[in-house]
């Protein structure tokens, strides 16, 4: 049994519109891994292999992970505000960790290769299912296509929370 987390930063303007920002976390055999793709310069396009400010950290306790997500890693006012959590029956820890490490080389594109796409790829590898066309399972990840803004996607996820950081 494991746990997957999604973190949100409510204020994260892109082209003058507050779309929000998401990061991710997961439990791994008594430890926790968390991170995100920050793109602190706000570039609309970062070629693959160039710095996109993706990061991850492994900590010993859930409380340490929550504290890590409260931190401002790039001194840009980039702290996360809240999180949601879902239990996962048979997590793929190695797959999620590999995907999380790969995020720093994926680059960034404002639509289609951003913080939301990177978070979803990590959580999907961990074992979080997507909603089907009827919204099942209810605790599955919402579709990015119908919730393309990170704030909207976070709000559409029907799991425990949000919990303030």
First-residue to last-residue Cα separation: 24 Å
- Can you tell me the overall shape? globular
Chain-averaged pLDDT:
90
Strand order of the largest sheet: 7-5-4-1-8-10
Query: What is Rg?
Result: 14 Å
Give a quick account of the main beta sheet: strands, pairing sense, barrel closure.
6 strands, antiparallel
How much of the residues is beta strand, in percent?
A: 25-35%
Tell me the series of helices and strands, N- to C-terminal.
EEEEEEEHEHEHHE
Low-confidence stretches: none
Q: Tally of extended strands?
A: 10
Give the helix level as a range of percent: 10-25%
Tally of DSSP helical segments? 4
Helix/strand structural class: alpha+beta
Describe this structure in words.
With 165 residues, this protein is an alpha+beta fold. Helices cover 23% and strands 30% of the residues. The strands form 3 sheets. Strands 7-5-4-1-8-10 form a 6-stranded antiparallel β-sheet, sandwiched between helices. Strands 2-3 form a two-stranded antiparallel sheet. Helix 2 (93-102) runs antiparallel to helix 3. It is globular, with a radius of gyration of 14 Å.
What labels would you give this structure?
165 residues, 10 strands, 23% helix
Outline of the structure:
The protein has 165 residues and is of the alpha+beta class. The chain has 4 helices and 10 strands.
Indicate the topology.
Layout: E1 2-9, E2 13-14, E3 17-18, E4 21-28, E5 31-37, E6 45-46, E7 54-59, H1 62-70, E8 82-88, H2 93-102, E9 108-109, H3 115-126, H4 150-156, E10 160-164
Antiparallel strand pairs: 1-4, 1-8, 2-3, 4-5, 5-7, 6-9, 8-10
Helix pairs in contact: 2-3
